[in-house]
Structures are given as C-alpha cells and as structure tokens.
Amino acid sequence: MVCSHILGFPRMGAQREWKTALETYWKSGSGAACAEPDAESLVRMGKQLRASHWALQKKAGLDWVTVGDFACYDHVLNHIQLLGCEPARFGFTEDMSELDRYFAMARGSLREEGGQALSMTKWFDTNYHYLVPEFLPDTVFSLHSERLFDEVKEAQALGYPVKAVLLGPVSFLYLGREKTDGFDRLSLLPKLLPVYREILERLHREGVRWVQIDEPVLGLDIGEKWLAVYEKTYAELAKEPVRLLLTTYFSSLSGHIGMICRLPVDGLHVDAVRGAADLQEIAARWPSEKVLSVGVIDGRNIWKADLDKALALLKAPELARRGNLWIAPSCSLLHVPFSLEAETAMDFRLKQCLAFAVEKLDEVHALKEALEKGDAAIGKALDSSRKTVAFRKGDWVHNAQLAKRVGKLAEDADRRKSVFSIRQALQRKRFRLPAFPTTTIGSFPQTPEIRSVRASFKRGILDEAGYREAMQKEIAFCIAQQEKLGLDVFVHGEPERNDMVEYFAEFLDGMAMTANGWVQSYGSRCVKPPVIYGDVSRPKPMTVEWIRYAQSLTDKPVKAMLTGPVTILQWSFVRDDEKRSVVADQIALAIRDEVADLERAGVGIVQIDEPGLREGLPLRRRNWREYLDWACRAFRIASCGVEDETQVHTHMCYAEFNDIMPDIAALDADVITLEASRGDMTLLQGFSDFRYPNEVGPGVYDIHSPRVPSVKEIVGLLKQASAVIPADRLWVNPDCGLKTRQWKEAFAALENMVKSARLMRETV
Ligand code: GLN
Ligand code: ZN
C-alpha cells in the first residue's frame, strides 16, 4: 500500500489572514479603539484556517490530514504549554487564560521583572524562528493543554482521517536552553517521558491511528550523549499502542542511520532531497515490514517537481519492493508560500515552473497515483512536469556571456591590490577621520510617508519624476540630520528600499519577485523571498544615482550601501539546476560591477552587508569548509575590484563568530561593523583572541528597542571594546540599520553616540 501525506502546512492562510487577525487582536488587547477580534473570534479564525487547510489536503487526495502543525505563534511554544513547562519567572496566575499566557511568553508581559519574552532563534537553517524553551533543574512537566486534542476533534468532526504531529522529546529538550549553570537539560528526560506517554495514550483513545513524532535534531551533529538516549526514549514511547512515524528532515542522517534503524517505531520519514545520498542505505536497513515515508518533493524550495526523476527514485528496487511506502514532501510546507493562484501578474514562463504549498499537495498525490496505477494515470501531470523540465533548460535562464565571465575569472579576482596595512595608510590620508570615527549602518527611520510614496510609485499613481523628487527630499533630510549630529561618515538613508534583498532583486536579471509569496518568519511576521530562476546579471546601475545625489549635498564622505552576494542568495529561493556557489559568483559579479560604477562616480567608501553569511552555514559541520570557501570568495569577488584608497565596509548582525574567525578575517573588509551591544561586547573577545587585523565597529546602541542609551552607557561599552581591540582600529556605530525606529529616539541616541565618541577621543 502506498500512502500520501504532508508533515505540515503553512499557517498564515492564502492572504495572510492569520497575520491580520493576530495583529488586530494584539492591538485591541493594548486598548486601541477596535474591539475586534476578541479572543473568541481569533480562536474561530484559527479553526476556519485549519479546516480550510485540511480540506485542501483532502481534496488533493492525501490519505491523512495532518493535525497539530498549526500554531497561533509558534509550534515549539505550543509544546511548552502542552507539556506544562511554562517558565515560573512569568508568574502566571490561575485566572490567566491559556491564550494570554501564550502571548505573554511570545511577546513579553508587563511584569517588572522576569516578564521578557522567551528568546527566539532560527529553526535549523530556515528563516523561521522558534521560541526557545527554558529549563531549570526543578522544571516539571505535566499534560497541560487541551489544544492538540481539541484540534484532533475538529478534524474528526469534519470526517477526516487524522495523523497528529508532535515535536519529539529529545528534539524538544535539545532545542531548549538551561537557564542556570551546572545543570544539563538532558537530565530532565525521565521527567518528560511520562507526559509524552500520556499524550500518546490520549491520542490513541481519541481514535488517532498514527502520530508523526518529529526528531529533526537527528540531522545535526548532536553528539554521543544525545544520540545515546534515543533507543531508551523510543522503547519507552513504543509501549503506547498508537503507531509512531519518526520524522527527520533538513539534513542527511549519515552517521546515525544504524541507531535510527534500531528504534522501535512503526515508521520513519526521511528527507530524500537533502538526504538523497542516505536513501539506499536506509532502504536496505529499515525493517521492510515498517512504514518508510520518503520525502521526495522539496519542501524547502518552490520549483515544480521533476516527476520522472521522483518516480525513478521511488521505483528503485530497494524501495519498490517495500509494502509500506509513504510519499511526502521532504519537510513541513511551512517554509514555502501558500499557493500560486495569487500570482496573477507573474511572467507565465516562470509561473509554470513553480509549485507552492497547495500545488505540492497535488504533486505528492500524483506520485502515489503513478505508483499504484501506473504512469498513465497521471498523464497530464507528467506531461506538464516534462514540459517544465525541458523549458527550464531553455535560453531564457541562461546567459552565455556571463557563464564565460564566471569561467574566466582571474585567480586574484578575489584579492585586493595591496595588503590591509598599505590600504589603511592610504585611506587615512584620504579621509582624515578622527579617532573613533562615527557612522551608521545604512537605513534611517522609514516613516509612513516614505512607505506611501514608494507604494504610490509602484502602483503607478506617482510618476518617476515625482518619486525621484520625494526620495531626494528624504535623502537631503537624512544628510541634514547627520550634519547636525556631527557624524563622520554619512549614509543616504535607504529611503528607496523596502527591503535590502528585494530592492536588488528588482534590478537584477535572473531574479523575480512574487506578489504574494509570503513565508512565516516568526509570529505574525512574514518575508517574501525573491526567486532566483536564471543566471543573475546586472543590466544597469542600481544605487549610483542616489549615492551621487547624497554626496553632492555634503563634504563628508557618504558611504554607499549594497547587499552582499551571500545574503542575496541566502534570503532567496534559489534555482535547483545550478550549484549555489555558481549563483553566488554571478551575484558577486553584479555587485562588483556596481562597486566599480560607484568608485567611478567618486564614491570613496562602500559597505557590503552580509548578515546572511553566518546563517548560511550548513547544518553538518563537515560541510562548513566547502561553504565558507565559496561564500567568502563570493564576498571578496564583489568587494575586491577597487583601488587601495577605496574603503570597503561590511556589516553583520547578531551572531557568534568565534568558530569562523579565520574566514571573517579573510573577507579582508577594511572595516567590519557588528551587532554587539546586547552581549556587552563579549562578541569582540573572538576578534581579540584571533588578533583580527582590520578595523571594527562593534554596535554600541541596540536598535531593536526605542530606548535611548545614555552617554555613560555608550562610553562604558566603548571602554570595554578598547580593552580588547586597539583604540585606533575602533569605529563607533549602532548595532544595525535604524529603519524600524522613530526619528526622535534615533536622533537622541545618535547624539549620545557622537558625544561618547568625542569623550573617547580625549582619552587617546
Ligand atoms: N544597511 C542595512 C540597513 O541599515 C543593513 C540591514 C541589516 O543588516 N539587516 O538597514
Ligand atoms: Zn544588521
């Protein structure tokens, strides 16, 4: 028997209805005029969305609807409530509703102490962020929420066969954090397992036949200690009569396969896209009477599947002779947009190559049909898939000239003409900046007026001349503010950019934007990644006009602002018919040409932002080297085409760099600015230990908060910084761009920042 299913579905709805509902609800809670929707209507909306998502799964012909993947904010937070381990620091009282406690943990409560929101971190290597469970030695667990069981009942009432989803106990602990030293969260496992058993028992009693239990950490290098608990854990859970489908995704399972194949569960799901190389071994070792769920449809990308290729894989002898084959996307569809239906304005050629979540349901089912009834049963789908495959090889995605250029790139294309010390001397002579030079990271507050001008221009209500005039006015305003503040290196303020990747995607050939391709990032926040569908090239300058205008207004150097190749790649859906490293080189050349044009226009300082570089690191450490080699080279190709006198900055947001310090140094940017204020400059230790040779601007002002830091505080941070980095190599800047701040607070904070730099100058 062949079955078809999915591991999870996007939550936001076709038109991001859930985002709207959440944000309206939060506003009403904070006392704003609108009373709708109250908690009841929010709950009703969630119910409607789930019902419509199940209906889509049913309509596509899947064998189960998946229940438990929906979350008001985040699925890990759902588990914190389900398992009854809400941190005591929130001081929740009996009379608080489950939903109020839920949002308090997600967004913070007003409590003086201990009310700050749970911290948020990236879900594996996706752009989704989960809330991190907090553990203490006395953390206890208990079945504490009816939500999952209620949702099961909802689906059953609609007549659907249910497969419920849980995040597995080992992954749940692994993804959390200890809130005190000297204790190991893994020691909580014996207290956690009885609650899992109780949940499984309840689900069984409610008539659920299969439970999908996600253990995605099995695709990480979790270490012996964690691997060692799996067999006992699942032996314990297997005592419950409900059937368990152990799900893994995002990565190869290599190294853990033997252990996994011994686990006493009834089924195993593997990511056959990222873990394609493991498939043969797993098929050979996983007991043949058990279910094997093969994730052949790519759940991380938006390309229509090559059904022939997928079928060839599924028909391979070691799979075909299995009696219990399930077919699925590689992972939850949470990471792709809802449906192509909304893409009414998209180039038809591109559109016919894509499949979003709804379309992927059909692909999963088509594969099952073909296996059961023969290829002829899905003639139409196969036809369309074949056309797409042929079409994607066509001229429209290839650029022969560019391929030649990438192929012929000089060996030293990623090296500056001279070493840093020579460049530094020349740049010092050129810019004559004071010690502790002050600057910002690029964007200034994006007011509602700026947003509405951009929107009007996009909709054709405002013409090009009107748009340019409005943007220039804004740039002039930013320049005037910076003069007033007395900053040393200016920026134009980025008013013309809605987003640091989308802005460039709109200029570059080979990249396209979607109208409605939203993907949840966290809570109600969604991002709309561009699609890289072909060879990437730059038909014309993208930023020169704005920077030149800004520079015409001041004698201070204006730093041009670009997004780096790795970040553009990392924050897009990337073509799957070309190596990522090649796409990175192509984008790098486009940025390199832009840098050259800027230099020709007289610009002396160029910043190339790479906040995506660190997060692009592969999940398995053994793949780091290869990634870092091509990613760092792409940055250098983009940045190294300049004269010694031209100063290259790069910027990266909050991240640990200690483990990749040699690679960060090898980027050879003249200046690197970092988000550092939240960690009390501890981030700099790695730079110091490594004797990082170039200049550094550790952020001294947390731009995530409206709070204005005092001079005393900033001077304190600068003193801490100069204790580890020589003062003559330090810059003074905020953590990141000021786009989300209000002018009033940004101006006050920058005023204090400039004052602090001046005080520091007196000390050298
Ligand atoms: N230059 C960008 C800005 O200032 C950088 C944003 C980022 O690092 N995320 O907004
Ligand atoms: Zn940043």
TrEMBL record:
GO biological process: methionine biosynthetic process; methylation
Cofactor binding note from Swiss-Prot or TrEMBL: Binds 1 zinc ion per subunit.
Family indicated by similarity: Belongs to the vitamin-B12 independent methionine synthase family.
Residues that, per the record, bind L-homocysteine: 441-443, 494, 609
Positions contributing to Zn(2+) 1 binding: 651, 653, 675, 736
All copies of domain Cobalamin-independent methionine synthase MetE C-terminal/archaeal, residue ranges: 436-758
Residue span, Cobalamin-independent methionine synthase MetE N-terminal domain: 4-315
A Pfam family annotated for this UniProt entry: Meth_synt_1
E.C. code: 2.1.1.14
Active site location: 704 (proton donor)
GO molecular function, one term: zinc ion binding
Protein name according to UniProt: 5-methyltetrahydropteroyltriglutamate--homocysteine methyltransferase
Family matches, as HAMAP family: Meth_synth (MF_00172)
Function summary: Catalyzes the transfer of a methyl group from 5-methyltetrahydrofolate to homocysteine resulting in methionine formation.
Residues the record lists as binding L-methionine: 441-443, 494, 609
